[in-house]
Amino acid sequence: MMGGWIDGYLTGINEYAPHTYDVASFESTELYAQIIADYCRKHPTVSLFAVMNSIVRERWKNRIIERTPSVALTLGGQHARLYQETIRRIQERLATKGFYASKPTGAFNAETMSAIAAFQKTLHGYKATGFPDQATLYLLFSQ
């Protein structure tokens, strides 16, 4: 039930917030639910609305402002769909961390996968797959 509420909240923002195509540039409902659950375990008196509103404010600068093509990704049995703009931002972020040397283009290619794998190797206990899963992206954009 919480997932449906999260989806509705995000849809409302996408519909009515100015200069916003999608407030969730890569985040899935499941990722938001996990973040909320973790926070609520530590702060059980805070309302769901307050927590979600705080997360959206924190992630606001990462929203997708205008429509951009989405790209279907498949690697080793994992599947995802990311905006081309999000892939460009991944490349940009990886470049600032020293993992990606080319100009960010938004194309998901071998160099991007290699850079993601190199970043994943720096994460304690994380398998370096080269796939931009939710946990990897959350850590990439949170650090």
Task: Give structural notes.
The protein has six helices and two strands, in the order αααββααα. Strands 1-2 form a two-stranded antiparallel ribbon. It is mainly α and 143 residues long. The radius of gyration is 16 Å and the shape is globular.
The major β-sheet equals:
2 strands, antiparallel
Strand order of the largest sheet: 1-2
Which series of helices and strands comes N to C? HHHEEHHH
Shape: globular
Global Rg: 16 Å
Secondary structure tally, helices:
6
What's the structural domain tally? 2
Provide key terms for this protein:
143 residues; 6 helices; globular; Muramoyl-pentapeptide Carboxypeptidase, domain 1
Concise structural overview:
The chain has 143 residues and is mainly alpha-helical.
Set down the secondary structure blueprint.
Layout: H1 2-16, H2 29-42, H3 48-59, E1 70-75, E2 78-83, H4 84-96, H5 110-121, H6 134-142
Antiparallel strand pairs: 1-2
